[in-house]
Write a structure and sequence with these properties.
It comes from Aspergillus pseudotamarii. This protein has 508 residues and is mainly α. The chain has 21 helices and two strands.
Amino acid sequence: MDYEPSEVVFATTSSPTASGIVFRYGQRSIKVPAPRRRGRPLGSRKGKTTGASVDGHKQKDHERYEFVNLGSNSTDIDRDTRKSIRKRVMLNHTYINHKRKGTSIEDKTERTASTRVPSSEVIVPQPGRVDPFNTLSIEIEPYMHDLLSLYITTIWETLYSIEKRCGCNPMTNYWLPLAFNDPALLHSLIGCAASFVMIANRSHGYPFFVRHLNEAIAIVNQRMADSAGSVSDETLVVIASIAMMKQMLGFHDEWNVHMQGLKSLVDSRGGLDSLNDKPLIQGKIYRADLCGCVAATQRPYFGARYQGIGESGPQTDHLNNGFRELDRLLNLDSLLKEAICSLQNATQTLFTINSKDHQAKAAQVRFWITSTQYRLLSTRYRDSSIPHLQALEICRLALLLFTVTICNEFPRGETTSDMLVAQLRRLLDNDAACRWLTPEFSLWALFLLALPVTVSSSKGWCLASISAAISRMCIRREEQFTQLLATFLHDPESHAMSCQVIWSEVTS
C-alpha cells in the first residue's frame, strides 16, 4: 500500500457520487506563499517625519537634559558643542575599550605573574564601572557609588547635626563637587563612609576603609614630596578628615600625629586667616582639632582665634535658675559664666530652627559651640587640690560634655569622650569638691555622664548615683526630673528620649 501523503479535492458543484481529484506529495509538501505584506511600498517617503519636526524634538530634549559641569569655572555649552563632545567622548571610549580587549592572554598572564597581588583583605574586587566616560578624578566602581550615596543621604545627618535642622547639606552643596576634581579628597570621603559601615557592622566595610584610607594618604604624601610651595585647600581637608576618622576609631595618638602635620601646613600658608574666605574649610579644620581635644581635654592646636567668647555678641547675659543657685554657692568666674551664656543662646536658637530659611541661625549656633569649646579648653583647674577649684573644674568638664551631647557627630554607639568622662567621674566621687555644688547641678552632671553618646564602663555607677540623688531629692515623677534638668542646659530634641530611657532604667 502506498503511504505517500496525499490530498483529495472535491468540486463544490459536483454531485455526491462524483470522484475527487487526488494530489500526491511524493517528494515534499507544497510551499504555500505567505500572506501579502500590508503597508506602503519600500522606498516611499510619505508619512516620514519632516526635518522641522525632528529639530523641534531635539530642541525639547535639549531643554530637558543639561550637561553637568564639574569644573571650577562655569561655561555655556551650546547644542553643537554638546554634539561634538558626545561624539568625541564616545569615540575615545570605544577606542579605549578596543585597546583593552586587544591585550593578549599571554601578556595578561605575564603581567599577573610579575605583579605582587595584594591581600584580599585590603583590596576589594572591581566588578564594573559607574563612570564610563572617565569624568571623575578616580575610576569609580559600583560599591564606591553606593558608599557615596550613603554618605550624602544618611551619614551627613550625623556629621552635620546642627546644619541638618535647617535642611542644609554641605556634602551635596560643597564637599562632593570639590571631591570630584581631587582624587585624595574623593578617596577620603569614600573611606569615611566605609568607616561608618565598619562601625555599624564589624564584618563589613573594613577592606573598603583600609583601601581608600591608604590611597588618600599615598596621594597626600606624593603631593608633599613634589610640592615646593604651599599645599592646596583639598589637601588640608583630606588631612583633617583622616585625623577625625582616627579619633572616631579610638586612635588618639595617631590623631595627634595628623594634627601636628596639619598645624605645620596651615602655618606655612599664613595661618587660618588665609582661609577666611572659605568658612567650610576652616570649619573642617576646627572640628578635626576639637574632636580630639575635647575627648582628651587637652589644649587645642588652633585655639588662638577664639580667646574671647564675649566678642561673639551673645543674646543674653543672665544665667538660668539652676546656674544662678550654683553661682551663689560656688561664685563662678567670668569664663564659666560666659560659656554658660553662650550655650544657653545656642540651645534657645536651636529650638527655633525649623526651616531652610534658618541657615544663618545654624551657622551662629555652630560658632557659639565652637568658641565655647575653645574657651573652655584654654583654662583648667584640675591641677589644684583645693576643693573649691576642683568644683570649678567639675563645672568646666560638665559644660564640655554638654557640647558633645548637643551635637553628637559620631556614629551611633561610639563614644570618643572616655577620657573626659573618666576625669569628670573621678571628681564627682570627691565628696569635698561636691559640697561646693548644688544637688541639682550634681544630678545634671550625672545625667550627662549617663547619656548614650557618653556612656562607657561607668554606666552602672552613673545609674546608681542618679537613683540615689533622686531619692534624696524626693523626685517621684519623670516630669519633675525633666523640669529639673531644664533649669540648666537642656535641648529637647537631643535629650528628650534619653530622659525617658534613663528614668525608666533608674526606676525599674
